[in-house]
């Protein structure tokens, strides 16, 4: 709903009461109600007209797939520039294994912890306070 929470709507309502005053508030509230009803009727009319023009295919359309917010321009450009046929059967994914670095900090720490668990004494730092 555009980030409008009940708290924000309540604050807007209180500000509107103070700005408009009790004399003009009912008139503007009635106009807002008419506007909301006309927008709802317009949206319902457009939906009914689409249903009439498309016929039974209207209910089969996946509308979420056509939502423009789901388009990623980078993906579209990547697919357009790739040599792969987008309608071909998908190939099995290739899983690449990275080479294991035996001197990584993670493996060094793991070896130290395993050694401490095996009974060795913990490292001692004479400079620590």
Automatic annotation (TrEMBL):
Gene3D superfamilies to which the protein is assigned, alphabetical: 1.20.5.3310
One family name in Pfam for this protein: TatA_B_E
One cellular component (GO) term of this entry: membrane
Gene Ontology biological process terms from the UniProt entry: protein transport
UniProt-annotated location(s): Membrane
Keywords of this entry: Membrane, Protein transport, Translocation, Transmembrane, Transmembrane helix, Transport
Lipid bilayer topology: Single-pass membrane protein
Protein name: Sec-independent protein translocase TatB
Source organism per UniProt: Agromyces bracchium
